[in-house]
Amino acid sequence: MNRDLRIVFMGTPDFAVATLKHILDNDYNVVGVVTAPDRPAGRGRKVQQSAVKKFAQEKGLHVLQPTNLKDENFIASLRALQANLQVVVAFRMLPRVVWDMPEFGTFNLHASLLPEYRGAAPINWALINGEHQTGVTTFFIDDKIDTGAIIAQRSTTIDPDENAGDLHDRLMNQGAALVVETLRKIVTNTVTTTNQPQQGIEKTAYKLNKENTRIDWNTSAGVIHNLIRGLSPYPAAWTVLENGDDEQINLKVYNSGVELKGHDLVPGAVLVEDKKLKIACSNGFVVLNEIQLAGKRRMPIKDVLNGFSFNSEAKMR
C-alpha cells in the first residue's frame, strides 16, 4: 500500500524553488515550508524575502522562518505540522532534533555526485577543477555534512565552455526531477540506499572566499580559464590591474578564452592585440572577453577597449 506523505520543504534560493514547484506540480502534499529569515540586502539595505518564501506565499503554503533551528518555539511549530517526511534543498545544516523528527526521515538534494564535492559550492568547484561530469544526488541526512546514505543519483556531462550559471540551471532542473523520483520511491516503500565512504574523499566543495576566487597568473591558461567559468556569473573571479605606477584597479572576469603559445612575457603582463585583451600566463595567454572594472558595469572587452587605456607596462597581479 502506498504511503500518504505529509512533506515539510526546507530551502532558500532559486535553486530550491524549482524543486518545490516540481513537488507541487506532481500533487504531493506540502504542509509547510521552512526558509531563511527576511534580511536587508543590496545598496539600499531593503529587507528582502528569500526566493522560496516568495514562491511559497504565492502558493498559499504555511511558512516558518527560524533564526535558530534549535529554538523551542520553532521545534514546537514544526512538530505541529505533523509531517512524516522533510525535503531539504540549499538550506542550512540541520540539528538532529530537526532531521530526526519525521517518520520517513529527512532527505537532501545535493548538486554533485556524492561522495565527491561535499560542501557549500559543488557546482563551482566541479568547473574550477575541470571536471567533465557531475550530477545531482538525493541522500538521507545524518549528523555530518553531505555524508548520509545515498538514495538516488543522476549524472550529466559538462560542456567545455559551460559556466557556473549555465550548469546551475541545468542541475536545478535535473535535481527537481530527481527529488520527485525519490518521493515516488518513498511513497511506494521501494527505497534502497548506498552508504557513502567516509574516508579518502579528496574533492571538496570549499566555501568560496576572497582568496580562492582570485586569479593566479603564474598558473596555466587552462587552470585560469576554468576558475573564471567556474565563478561566473557569481561571485566572479577577480584580479588587480596595475595600470602604471599610481593606478591599481580591481576587476572581475566573467568570460575568457585560451591561447596556448610561447612568449617571453612575465605572468600577468597585459597585451592589447587585434582588439583583444590578452594576459600572459605560464603556457600562453588568457583572452579576457568580458570584464567589470571597479565602479563600472560589466562589459564585453571591445567596449572596454573603446573607453579605457591600458598602460604599456600594465600588469595583472
Q: Can you tell me the residue ranges where pLDDT is under 50 for at least 5 consecutive residues?
A: none
Secondary-structure element order, N to C:
EHEEEHEHEHEEHEEHEHEEEEEEHE
CATH topology of the largest domain: Rossmann fold
Strand percentage lies at 25-35%
Gap between N and C termini: 64 Å
Note down, in words, how this protein is organized.
With 317 residues, this protein is an alpha/beta fold. The protein folds into two domains: 7-204, Rossmann fold (3-Layer(aba) Sandwich), CATH 3.40.50.170; 221-316, Methionyl-tRNA Fmet Formyltransferase, Chain A, domain 2 (Roll), CATH 3.10.25. Helices cover 26% and strands 28% of the residues. It is built from eight helices and 18 strands. The chain has helices at 14-25, 51-58, 72-80, 96-99, 122-128, 164-187, 221-230, 301-307; strands spanning 7-11, 30-34, 39-41, 46-48, 63-64, 85-89, 106-110, 118-119, 133-140, 150-157, 204-205, 237-242, 248-259, 270-273, 276-281, 284-293, 299-300, 315-316. It has a seven-stranded mixed β-sheet with strand order 5-2-1-6-7-9-10. Strands 12, 13, 14, 15, 16, 17 and 18 form a seven-stranded antiparallel β-sheet that branches. Helix 1 (14-25) runs parallel beside helix 2 (51-58). The longest helix is centred in the middle third of the chain and has 24 residues, at 164-187. The radius of gyration is 23 Å and the shape is elongated. The model has no long low-confidence stretch (mean pLDDT 96).
